[in-house]
Fold these 2 entries.
Entry 1:
Amino acid sequence: MSELLRNVMRNFPLGVAIVTTNWNGRYIGMTINTFNSLSLNPPLIMFSADRIKGNDKPFRESNGFVINFVDNEKLLDIFAFKDVKERFDGIEVQEGKTGSPIFPQSYAYLEARKYQIHDVGDHSIIIGEVIDGKIFKEDFSPLVYFRRAYWKLSK
Ligand SMILES: Cc1cc2nc3c(=O)[nH]c(=O)nc-3n(C[C@H](O)[C@H](O)[C@H](O)COP(=O)(O)O)c2cc1C
């Protein structure tokens, strides 16, 4: 059934972002398509992290995270496929209130303090309470992930 789930989900377009954190002084980041807002009051956001790959660990062991909304396909590929230790090489960042890196080239970001973590199946749902954020630009081309590729929205 997990293959069926994979095959059906491949056909469902999802937004993409890069989640970052500061893990004991080390910058960590990964491309995600499981980001969503969860609650307005309190303002909560969430994503799910693959526990088999250990993607949950840095977020479990740090005090918060930043969701970087980017429309740059190359950056999304770096943060999905490049060696974890080399992902931030040559990339400009600013530190947020939780020490998590923010990409000034994003079109917006949200910063959250760790709120709850729920282990469900082979993933963990990482929930954060929004403490900061900004819209950097109004003029951008958001990407969606669909059938294993990034697509630009057009009307
Ligand atoms: C489009 C896309 C979406 C992804 N979404 C998630 C996600 O929501 N949660 C997750 O744990 N991994 C997700 N991944 C995989 C992680 O980006 C990847 O496992 C992480 O960067 C660590 O890299 P590694 O698996 O090479 O160690 C996604 C990958 C891609 C290409």
Note: Residues 73-81 form the longest helix (9 residues).
Entry 2:
Amino acid sequence: MDTILEPFIKDLNTLTTHGINVNISGHQRNFKGGLMCFLADNLASNLLGGFKESFSFSHRFCRTCMVKTTSYKDKFLSSDFCQRTAEIHKRQCDELDAAEGDLKDHYSKTYGINRRSKLMCAKNFSMFDGGLPHDAMHDILEGVAQLEVKLLVKHCVNEKYITVAEYNHRTENFDYGKNEMDRPGIITRELLGSNDKKFHLSAAQTLLLCQIIPLIMGDCVPEGDEHWQCFLLLLKIFDIVFSPVVPKGYCAVLKLLIAEHHSLFKSLHSSSMITPKFHFLVHYPDQIVALGPMTRYWTMRHEAKLSLFKKASHLGNFKNIAYTLASRHQRWMCYQLASDNMLQSCFECGPGSSPSTIGQQPHQLGSIIQRAIPSISNDATVFHPKWVKKNSINYCNNNCYVIIGTDGTDPLFGHLIDVYVVGGDLLLLHVYHCQTIYFDDHFHSYVISDTTNMSIVCLQDLLSPFVLHGHKLFDGRSETYITMKHLIFS
Ligand SMILES: [Zn+2]
């Protein structure tokens, strides 16, 4: 690894100290840059940083703190652990380098360090202030959530709240809408009964299943069930961790939620169920303070990129797989550059009526559009398609809701009736205003009702570009429930 890192660190240090000169419109400009953090999964991060890669053959497995393998199941606050620092780490590496034989093994296991990493030579970079961040996709989705959602379903089946057949029926017949492509599949009794700690879902499937499971089976679970309460705590952690904006004050809330969740989880299950990934969550609040909201640097995007290589590797030619993948990736890049739309937002319209001007619209609609955008001219073209897809989000009138504002505490939703494209690229959404009645803790969702007030909102004025779906519960009650993807901070 250090052989690979060496030229990278050398170039990086040149960029940090001397920078590169770029000619911009006849002016010579000097740009400098540096490494902020290195994004990877836990094993790769530990490998890069020179830490032990195996969690079971070390007394200390965390690259952020000095937690022992004997104590991470008992304490759930980052302040309970001594943090690793550049100074402490350098001293430990010195001791490791000076030792030989059994003593070297002893230091290596005691400190959880394999070697002095080349990353330590990168200027203005520290591995310990968020330099090797913990990743929400691998820790919380593929680790904690997969395990907990499996244990929750198992508990509900054992307590006879729901049968496996009913769970599968509801999962298959849930109204996912047009925006949720990574749908969770059905389960079997064998999968529930196995010792495997996973549900064998992708990270995106796990995220979706956790968000919708209150709507799928919440009506079957009695209020106050402790396993359900524990899962609701996990969803509250999701709300902050997956938000693209996190006010600093919420990091303290997150700290308490994680400690409360882990303590309750431990009291409900044997402590052998608590894995090192549970521990990594205790560092999330400090990491958000250091680096910002976690979805800004999680590895979900890297996994999406990886899927390109996974598809290419399924072609069956393994004579020189590295060459095959490199070649196909270059061809893909060539296509993207030649098609000239690599960095442009994707905008796609469905079928609709012939474009007309603002002046030709029915009076009420024309005046609503002009009220929404006073500067718009009467000659601007208006196209009324059945649906619009922008940045992979589908806006249509199929039970879709958008967040048009807040009342200071709760979000205000708009029920999408129509979409209009004005002037070729401005997306306007025609919505009925909804009344946010209350937040139902048990279903972790807002209960809303439509009103007769309507208005037109510009897409860029929404508090979140996401389209949410209104749901009826399977028990037949009449209220409409909306589950958020994360907290909204205006
Ligand atoms: Zn730690």
Note: The pocket of zinc ion is lined by residues 62, 64-65, 67, 81, 279, 283 (CB under 6 Å).
